[in-house]
Amino acid sequence: MHGPPPAPRPPGPALSRRGVLLGALAGAGAATLTGCATPVGAGLLKTEAAPGAVEYWNLFGGGDGVRMQQIQDGFRRANPGTPLKAITLAWGDPYYTKLSLATVGEEPPDVAVSHLTRMKTLVDAGLLQELRPEDLARHGMAPDNFNQRAWQAGLVDGRAYAIPLDTHPFVLFYNTDVCQQAGLLDSDGQLKPITGEAAFADALARAKQVTGQYGATHGINADPASPWRLFQTFYSQLEGEILADNGTRIVLDDAKATRVLDYLRALTVEQRLMPSAADYQGAIAMFAAGQAGFHLNGEWEISTFQTAGMSFGMTLLPNIFGGPHAVQADSHTLVLPARPDLDQARLDRSLHFVRSVLDQSLTWAEGGHVPTWLPFAESDAYRRLSPQSSYAAAADTAVYDPPGWYSGSGSNFENVIGSAVGAVEGGQLTAQAAIAQIRSQLSALARTPSPV
Amino acid sequence: MATTISAPDQIRTEPGSPPSGGADHRTRQGRPALLFLAPFLALYLLFIVGPALYGLVMSFFHTSLVRPGLGEFAGLDNYAEALGSSDFWWALWHTVWFTILTTPPLVVLALVFALLAERVRRGRWFFRLAYFLPYVLPSAVVALIWQWIYTPELGLLSRTVDAFGATAPNWLGDPNWAMVSLAITTVWWTLGFNFVLYLAGLQDVPRDLYEASAIDGAGPWQQIRRITLPLLARTTTLVVVLQVIASLKVFDQMYIMTSGGPNFSTRSALQYVFDVGFTDYRTGYAAAASTLFFLLVLAVSAVWLVMTRRQESEV
Prior knowledge:
A: D-Maltodextrin-Binding Protein, domain 2; 46% helix; 14% strand; B: MetI-like fold; 2 domains
C-alpha cells in the first residue's frame, strides 16, 4: 500500500493509538455499568429492568400483532403507574423454547401467552403457576365468567393454570359474489346451511362452475397444520379418538380415519374440487383472487381478506359426517410462568394485566377470535360484530388436541398426521398407507418416555 | 498433467519455502501470536468447543429442554434409538441427496460463469455483480422469492411451463420434485460465492502464459484446457470442500420452503435434530443424533483431505 505521506502532526497533545483504545474501553465499561436499565445489563446483573413493571411475552404477528399492540396501549393508558414491557417473539417452537428456557433459568416474564394445547406440557414440566380461585376472585375472574368448553379444556387435574382469551377454530370462508351466482346464499346473503358429504361436495362443485377453477382451497404444501385441522374436524364429527392415556396409547380408528381420508381424496384428487397442491399463501391468494368460492382456514385470516377488500362471509365448517358438530380449534391463553421470587404485589400486577386484556376482548374479537370472556361474549357489542359472531358457536363445538407430551399446537403430533393427510390429498398416498404411516410414527412417540 | 507448463511448481514454492531462522524464529514469534489469537480463541472455546463437548456429554443422558440439569443417565440408549429410527436414516439420506444434487452444478456452473465473465470485454462489473447478488440475500428472502416462483397455478414457473403446453410438476408439493426444486433454488442463491472464488483464482493465472501459448498457436479452448483448468486445480479443491460442507449443513431452505415436507420427503438431518430437540424437548436424544451427523461430516471431510493430499503430492 502506498498511501499519501503521513500528515504532519498538529501541535498539542497527540492522540495516540493506545489512548484511543483505552478511551474506547473505558467508554464501553461505563456504558455497561450505566446499562442496568438495558435488557442486557439487567440480564447480566440480574437486576430488574424496571421495578413494578409487568413483563409480557406473546407470539402475535400480522393482524393479531397489531391488535395486541392496541390492547397493550389500552393497558398503558389506564395504568400509567405500571410500566408494561411487552415482547413479541416468533410463533411456534422458537417461542415455546424461549419461554421454557427463560422459566427454567428463573428469569421468566410475568405473563405469557400460550396455546391451550401447549400449556399442559408446560404444566407437566412444572413451569407454570397454579391460578388459585381466591387470587382470581380478587380481580373479578371466576370460572363461570368463561366459556365452559375452553375453561374445562384448560384444567389440569381440576386446577387452573391458564386464563383462556379466545377460541380460534378452523372455519369456512366463502366468497359472497361466487356463492351468490352459484345459488348458495339465502335471502339475507348468508350461506345456506350445508350438511352431509354429498351436500358439501355439491356446494363446492357449484362454486367451481362459477369460478371455473376450484370450489375451495386450503394449504397443503409445506403446511401440515391445515390438513391436520381439516382431518381433526371431520374425524371428530365421527367421534374418532387418536390418543388415550395421556398419549401413551394410540387408539386411531382405522375405519373412521379411512372414511375421512377417502372423502378428502375424493374432493381433491378425484373430483378436483380443491387443488391438491397449494401452499398456505397460495391457497389464500387463490381465494382472494376469486379462483375459488370457499377457503378453509383459521378465522385469524379475516384481516387478510378484509385488507384485500373482497366481499366474503365466514361460518362454521359444516357438519359432514352427521355426528356431533365438531370443529378443530385451539385457544390462546394467558399464563403466569413459575418464578422463585413471587410475591403478592407481583401476582396482583400480573393478574390485573390479565384482566385488562380480557376487558378489551372487543379489540381482540375484531381479529376473528371467538371471545371466551362471557361478559363480552354475551354482549350486544359482540353480536353486532359481523362476520365474526356468525361462527361464535365454534367455541362450544371446539375440539382440542388430545393430551400427550408430544401433542399441541405446532407439535410433531400435528406434523405427523398433517403430513400424511396432505400426502393423501396430494394423491401420493392411499388412505391405508397414510394410516399405517401415522400409526408407525405416533407409536414411536408414544413409546418414548415423556421428556417433561 | 505431464504436458502442463511448469507454473504449478512456481505456485508451490511460495508456501514451501520456510522463513529463515527456522524453529528459533518460530518460538520467538509464539507469545505475541498467542496474544493476538487470544480473543478469537476465547470465543472459540466458549461458543464452539465448549458447547460441542457439552453436547457430546448430553448425548449420553435423557436430557430434557424443560428440566434443569442433564437428567437421567442413558448410556448408549440415545444412539441405539437413532440408529434404529427409520426417520433418522431418511433425514440423513435427504441431506446426502441434497449434497449430491447441489455440489456438481455449484462447482461446474460457477467455473463456467467465471470463465465467461472473465472473457467479457465491456461491462465486466455488471456480470460479476449479477452473479454475486443473490448470495447477499438472506435465506428467508430467497425462500420467499422462490416459493412464489414455484407456487402451483399462480407461480411464474408453473405459468411459464403451462404456457408452453406442458403440465408443470408440483414443484414443492410432489415428493419426487421437492428436493430438486430446493436444489435449483440453492444453486441460484449460492452460486455467486463459488463464482467469486473462481474469479479470484483466474486473476492469479499469469497473463504471459496465455500470450506465450497464443504465439505457439494455442486456441481459446486449448488455453482453457491446458492452462486455466490445471492452474485452477487448487481453487477447485477449495470450492468443492467448502461446497460439500455447506450442502451437508443445509437447513434454512427446507425449514422455510417445505417444512421438511411433503410428507417428510425433504427433512434434512439438521431439521430432524431441530424437531426432536426443540419441538419434542428431547435435547439428549437430539445431541446423539447430531453427534452421529457430525461423524458423517467428519468422515466426508477426512476422505476428502486424504484424496487432496494425495493429489497434491502427485502434482
